[in-house]
Amino acid sequence: MSASIALQPGALERYETPSTCEPAWVRVVLITIALTFFAVFLLLPLGTVFAEALRKGWGTYLASLSSPDAWAAIRLTLLTAAIAVPLNLVFGVAAAWAIAKFEFPGKRLLITLIDLPFSVSPVISGLIYVLMFGAQGWFGPWLAEHDIRIIFAVPGIVLATIFVTFPFVARELIPLMEAQGAEEEEAAVVLGASGWQVFWHTTLPNIKWGLLYGVILCNARAMGEFGAVSVVSGHIRGKTNTMPLHVEILYNEYNYAAAFAVASLLALLAIVTLGLKTLVERQTRRQRQESIKASEIES
């Protein structure tokens, strides 16, 4: 039994028209709102930072960045990132590998713990380390007895930074590795490859752009972290002040030129990070498109 459906005039055209094809005035309004929001909340503050930093001239700007306290803050920021990012890289790869490739008891708990820093305030995470390693903390007396300083010292800053940044690499790799599956690794094992050979020659080439993307985000957060570091640092000039903390101290002292000079350096680092992030996203999209084309050809 056959049935025919009579279409009203213009029904086929309406069906074929994409649902996102809005009238021109709607698109203009939406684009204008987006660009206005972008200009007011991103470009204007960014421009203000550089304008205030250079208000008193290049001499004052360079003198603010070359002061001993500023150099100490820059070195400590770079040192903290240089320690935290590689450790989070190792943890992120290991956690993503375990979660994406294996089934084991406590898997859901591990995923929840990875997301924990996203739901806990950085100030609270810093306070946790104070309660653990501070003078009146759980391990405080033992640390004092052995002359080991964690709180109000570089180790505490590094620990707090690691805590707030460790989800970034893992969270970027887990969905990527789950989508890729384990067929290539299993084939490599069948052909006699060892565990390291499987990782270096099979897994790593497939996740390299996602891994780099996660490292970039982790590094950006490590250099710009304020809340957790502020709690554990003690704000000791020239010793435990990172760049964000140094900016706060200078601003509270009404030394606006120096404060905005250091802030402009952080802004430049953020712009470079954004550029790298854009390039990696482009490469990631290209890799995914090539994978989809390859799978279509195989099927």
Describe this structure in words.
By secondary structure, the protein is mainly α. Helices cover 78% and strands 0% of the residues. The chain has 14 helices and no strands. The longest helix has 43 residues, at 256-298.
Summary?
Helices cover 78% and strands 0% of the residues. It has 299 residues and is mainly α.
Question: Any chance you could write out the topology, listing elements then pairs?
Answer:
Elements: H1 11-16, H2 24-53, H3 58-65, H4 68-101, H5 107-119, H6 122-133, H7 140-145, H8 154-165, H9 167-180, H10 183-190, H11 195-224, H12 227-233, H13 243-252, H14 256-298
Helix pairs in contact: 2-14, 3-14, 4-8, 4-9, 4-11, 6-8, 6-12, 8-11, 8-12, 9-11, 10-11, 11-14, 13-14
What key phrases describe this protein's structure?
single chain; 299 residues; mainly alpha; 0% strand; disordered N terminus
Number of helices: 14
What structural class do you assign from the helix and strand content?
A: mainly alpha
Element string (H = helix, E = strand):
HHHHHHHHHHHHHH
Strand content is under 5%
Question: How would a crystallographer describe the biggest sheet?
Answer: none
Residues in helices, as a percent range: over 70%
